[in-house]
Design a protein that fits this description.
The complex is a heterodimer of chains A (319) and B (292).
Chain A (H helix, E strand, L loop, with lengths): L8 H6 L3 H13 L14 H11 L6 E7 L5 H17 L3 E6 L5 H18 L11 E6 L3 H10 L1 H4 L4 E3 L5 E3 L18 E5 L3 H9 L5 E5 L4 H9 L5 E4 H14 L32 H32 L2
Parallel strand pairs in A: 1-2, 1-6, 2-3, 6-7, 7-8
Antiparallel strand pairs in A: 4-5
Helix pairs in contact in A: 2-11, 4-5, 4-10, 6-8, 10-11
Chain B lengths: L13 H23 L2 H24 L15 H44 L5 H27 L14 H36 L5 H17 L1 H9 L1 H5 L5 H36 L10
The chains are: A alpha/beta (319), B mainly alpha (292).
Chain lengths: 319, 292
């Protein structure tokens, strides 16, 4: 009987079976979802700017809400979208929903509004009504051309778009309380983009300077959008899952806003002045729910890189 | 004057009908003209179309735009006439481009049906997958339009926004779209996590100075995202006395200093390349594909 020589530790560390790695990832990313873990959060300046911009909108005004996400980026965009919608709903701000990124995005957004409305109804609040509070303008496959047209005239850009009015008749969206009187982009106080694509660049190119813009983007798209924030072309920016959690934290505590015990939970030197939160409402959602998973997954990623490199080092030394 | 009112016609007016008929006939004539024309004439037609459509956007960019234009305002001079015309043309061009792009979706559907029905009819390898694909597509179309019709063209439509009032088509559409399609899309995307972990373990090795710098930078940004670590770091004695050493400050400095400037540089290069390419296409200097 021959005895197998023991493998050097270096080689062992470098040749972990990928199935084991995958299994660890599944366990590590799933387990935190079963527990409500509150992770500390200090909101980024860019998200603070976005929140203060949303909170400074006049009540009853109308924003353009560009939605460019589907379930593929649900982990990040859903939390951002929900947080933005909650702010709009609570502040009675109307929204015109549209997409230049993905054909299914408006439908996903409508489903999301339905879900939030059910939550509101459970809490005894008035639902965010289609036609009177929001309208869907649909998907525009030619984003560049549509954004150019929006810069000329909103009426012409969205000409022919219809919605069902409460009396059951199909009417032009510009007869709705949401878009009535909003012929020009200059009458809109804010364009909000929740995007997983480079539609952000399109908006900056075609509508920059004509309307204030804020973006909520995926972590991957963050570096592309960040130069526009630092140059002041974008008034606020929420990036990735951290951006979603930041918005939820800001909704809970506000900015420089003393809580009931007098403690300011989110102090900011970047933003002067106090912006209130919504402490009596349900603010936390998928941002907080998914953040522990992101934590442990990133820790696993660091561990994997370390193990691989230690293995390489040991193998070079012949250990 | 004619220029300024070219796109503006009263509903039901004779000019609107004339223009509608022309809008139908002219593209058809161009289409058949291109089909039967010699390569030289074809190139000229395509070149002229490119130039004219591009000219609209070039003029939109450089021509003075009307300010505070009233709905029935009449232009005072040639400059205003062109400005009005271009401003009115841009939304029409966007509509045309949206319609053409939508036709591309239709073309995609046609192509999928053609390829997979052939595969199905001839019992090619993996034909059951084609059957599933065509079946799924048909089901989605049937229930999608059925539900759309109920929502928009029946008295019960407005109440269907609430799931409590849903009927069979709404449930079926919800099951197909949210229950299957969206979940499969999410599942496909989530595979990236496995690839990233595997790649991080196998490929992210400190073999050179560049790789070490990259790894160090990535590590700092990842640690910053982990707010628990970020907070523990901030509470460390040395860091408490030196706020610039906080992970948050470092993670802010890195993107603002290196990442944004690099991306701006790349974007600038891409922009110049796009401008050169657009000019070549606009002026028909790019010959490739035009004779086809």
């Amino acid at each position: 009987m021959s005895i197998q020589p023991r493998q050097p530790i270096g080689k062992l560390l470098m040749s972990l079976n990928r199935r084991i790695l995958y299994l660890i990832l599944i366990v590590v990313s799933t387990v935190p979802l079963f527990f409500q873990i509150k992770v500390p959060d200090k909101p980024d300046d860019s998200t603070i700017d976005m929140y203060s911009k949303l909170m400074s909108l006049p009540e009853g005004s109308t924003v353009l809400l560009s939605t460019g996400w589907t379930y593929s980026t649900r982990g990040e965009n859903k939390g951002q979208f929900d947080a933005i919608l909650k702010i709009l709903m609570r502040r009675h701000i109307k929204a015109a929903l549209f997409s230049i990124s993905d054909v299914t995005a408006p439908k996903v957004a409508i489903e999301e509004i339905t879900e939030l409305n059910m939550e509101r109804q459970k809490e005894g609040k008035k639902p965010y009504q289609r036609w009177s509070d929001w309208v869907s303008l649909g998907f525009f496959p030619n984003g560049d051309g549509t954004a150019n047209a929006m810069s000329v005239s909103l009426v012409k850009a969205f000409e022919g778009k219809q919605e069902v009015a409460p009396n059951g008749s199909v009417e032009n969206v510009f007869n709705s309380p949401v878009l009535k009187g909003h012929d020009s982009i200059s009458s809109i106080p804010l364009l909000i983009g929740v995007e997983s694509t480079s539609a952000t660049t399109t908006y900056i190119q075609k509508l920059g300077g004509k309307v204030p813009i804020v973006f909520a983007v995926t972590g991957v798209m963050g570096p592309e959008a960040l130069p526009y924030y630092s140059s002041g072309q974008v008034s606020g920016l929420a990036i990735g899952l951290k951006g979603a959690l930041d918005l939820e934290t800001l909704m809970q505590y506000g900015i420089n806003n003393p809580g009931p015990n007098g403690v300011v939970m989110v102090p900011s030197q970047h933003h002067a002045g106090v912006v209130p939160g919504f402490p009596n409402d349900k603010n936390y959602g998928t941002g907080l729910a998914y953040f522990p998973t992101l934590h442990v997954s990133l820790a696993l990623l660091i561990l994997a890189v370390l193990v691989g490199n230690i293995g390489m080092y040991m193998q070079r030394r012949g250990w | 004057m004619i220029l300024a009112s070219f796109w503006v016609n009263q509903s039901g007016s004779i000019w609107l009908f004339v223009k509608l008929i022309l809008a139908f006939i002219v593209p058809l004539a161009i289409f058949y003209g291109i089909k039967d024309a010699s390569p030289g004439v074809r190139r000229a037609i395509i070149g002229a179309t490119f130039f004219l459509t591009g000219l609209v956007y070039v003029l939109y960019l450089i021509w003075p735009k009307p300010i505070h234009r009233q709905p029935n305002e009449i232009p005072q001079n040639f400059s205003e006439s062109v400005g009005f015309f271009v401003s009115d043309t841009v939304p029409v061009a966007a509509d045309v481009a949206n319609i053409v792009a939508t036709f591309l979706l239709g073309l995609g559907v046609f192509s999928v049906i053609k390829i997979h029905s052939e595969k199905l009819a001839r019992r090619h390898r993996d034909w059951p997958f084609s059957l599933v694909l065509i079946g799924s597509m048909l089901l989605m179309v049937i229930f999608g339009y059925w539900n759309y019709y109920l929502k928009n063209y029946t008295p019960a439509g407005p109440s269907l926004g609430n799931p409590a009032n849903w009927t069979f088509p709404s449930f079926a559409e919800d099951f197909l779209f949210n229950g299957l399609y969206q979940q499969m899309e999410a599942a496909m995307f989530s595979l990236i996590a496995f690839f990233i972990l595997s790649a991080a373990y196998r490929a992210f090795r400190i073999r050179s100075i560049e790789a070490t710098v990259l790894l160090g930078t990535a590590l700092l940004l990842v640690l910053r995202t982990m707010t628990v670590v970020s907070q523990l770091w901030a509470d460390a004695p040395f860091v408490r006395d030196h706020p610039n050493m906080q992970l948050e400050s470092i993670a802010k400095w890195l993107p603002n200093t290196f990442q944004s400037s690099s991306i701006r540089g790349v974007d600038f290069g891409v922009g110049i390349g796009l401008l050169a390419m657009a000019l070549r296409l606009w002026l028909s200097l790019e010959k490739q594909g035009q004779g086809a």
